[in-house]
Amino acid sequence: MKFSLSKFLWFDGKIVPLEKAKEYSRRYYNEVYTVFGDWKNLIGNKVWELKYSITPYGRKRFWEIPLLFDSDYEYKKYKARVKREGINHVIQGCGADCMKIALCRIFEENPFGDGLKILIQIYDEIVVEAPKEIAEEVFKFVSGIMIEVEKDFLGNIPAKVDGYVANYWQK
Asked: pTM for this one?
């Protein structure tokens, strides 16, 4: 499922009524990816209980839970939001932590001196500048660091980095 449009969801190029989309979502978590669904429920419940979520690298995000709500509906809506944001923090925060560690390592372990310049980070991308003569070596170095950082977290799950050498940044 890609994004919602009021009472419909866009799914694989087709507009699907909301009830059908909810059924797809339920089946996705309960039948196809049951382990992820169980993990998601476990993390969401823990986030609500502790009032914070934590990335695998230890960074925390806290929530302040109001004592009173206008209605039971508002309470349930707020609880669902906190759980959803907490789960997202664990996943997205881990990616951000990996990126920060990779950037630090690239800077600290840079064997190219002024030949490698970190220009900018764009979400999960690192844009660097290097002379043409060493561009391929720099690419291997940067992507190698990114893979190593991911492996520290992923363990036996294969890590992959996509990238390219070009004269300018492109999407």
From this structure: 0.77
